[in-house]
Amino acid sequence: MNSSRNLLVTGGAGFIGANFVHYWRRRHEADAITVLDALTYAGNRANLASLEGSAGFRFVKGDITDRDLVAKLLAEQQIDTLVHFAAESHVDRSILGPDEFIRTNILGTHSLLEACRKVWLGATPRPNHRFHHVSTDEVYGSLGTDDPAFSESTAYAPNSPYSASKAASDHLVRAYHHTYGLKVTTSNCSNNYGPMHFPEKLIPLIIVNILEGKPLPIYGDGRNIRDWLFVDDHCQGIERVLERGRIGETYNIGGWSEVENIDLVRRLCRIADDVFKADVSLAARFPGSPCARGLQAESLITFVRDRPGHDRRYAIDCRKAETELGFAPSITLEDGLKQTFTWYLGNEPWWRAVMDGSYRNWLATQYTA
Ligand code: NAD
Ligand code: DAU
Hints:
Layout: E1 6-10, H1 15-27, E2 32-37, E3 57-61, H2 67-76, E4 81-84, H3 91-96, H4 99-120, E5 130-136, H5 161-180, E6 184-189, E7 191-193, H6 202-212, E8 216-219, E9 225-230, H7 231-244, E10 250-253, E11 258-260, H8 261-278, H9 281-285, E12 301-304, H10 319-325, H11 333-346, H12 348-354, H13 357-364
Parallel strand pairs: 1-2, 1-4, 2-3, 4-5, 5-6, 6-10, 7-9, 8-12
Antiparallel strand pairs: 9-11
Helix pairs in contact: 1-7, 2-4, 4-5, 6-8, 8-11
Bound molecules: nicotinamide-adenine-dinucleotide (NAD) and 2'deoxy-thymidine-5'-diphospho-alpha-D-glucose.
């Protein structure tokens, strides 16, 4: 491993990217970090506020499709490690409007690869480089109840415009290694949750809606299964890949934590009921919540129209990362959900600020019972 690194983190103002930047900063103080982020609706500079102005940290507002900007950053900042999170990440948005997913996830990844090829493999090669691509388990498609979990050799079968765009980007990354010798690694991770998660995704949406006393929308019959991983454990997995992963390899990262959506939502409801009982001051802060009136949060559960093409089950077999890299999820789902609920209670201004008018209008079109 390098003694110190110069990282370029794309999408570092988003949910996982920002958690990764903080995680890396805590554990690798000597490393320099440049964040490149376009600050789309999902990017939030406040996620990095505590790092602004600190030595070795730099924020650049810019688009990953801007190849000249990326090449300039790679050269001027002497970047040796690029960790690529930037993406359009929400499946429902990809169904409503795939264009931006094609542009950012496919063309953007291609632009980054070209900039890296130019700077790292060009006239003055930089042999000690790494392009780490952050991808998803959704590229493998959907599993039946008894199917084995996705392994690294499972054939790709993406079903949504989002997962198809991520699959395309995975293939481009692979091809740049095979054809040009770019030093790449890829990780395919299951569903993340934790602090700074934009409240359009299931877990933060349910937490915020419980607090505001709004319906908890469950798509279809609620029996779709996801494998949940606390975001810091995903960061740990990426760290292991950067430190110990073999060039050109892909690694699955997951939580061994499969849960039906309805079960997950009920667990969050029980956590809310308990937290409100333990802290009576919450009733005054969140008077719209049923918990404030001694009612159960579950009373808000509302079954709504299913997501088109909704994948039934994801499950990750992460034995390769465990045995080769020493990766191990460290936070149980129950503890992770409690920590996450507590974070949203303690950061009300954060989620109120991201849930502005335009976002709410979009949200309102989604939940037709
Ligand atoms: P997010 O939507 O919260 O954040 C994406 C970030 O990328 C935002 O800060 C946004 O401003 C930035 N961005 C978008 N387009 C950009 C562009 N053209 N140029 C520069 N920046 C741009 O996403 P997330 O949930 O943090 O996911 C991060 C990565 O991890 C994505 O690649 C996603 O596919 C992958 N992933 C996510 C999950 C999950 O559960 N959220 C699981 C597995 C893999
Ligand atoms: O599996 C990894 C993927 O996980 C990532 O690649 C994506 O970027 C990330 O968004 C996530 O995708 P999902 O579609 O699984 O996450 P989402 O939170 O949108 O939905 C989780 C499950 O909950 C899914 O089965 C759909 C369902 N759902 C979602 C929402 C937003 C509901 O039932 N109601 C909802 O309101």
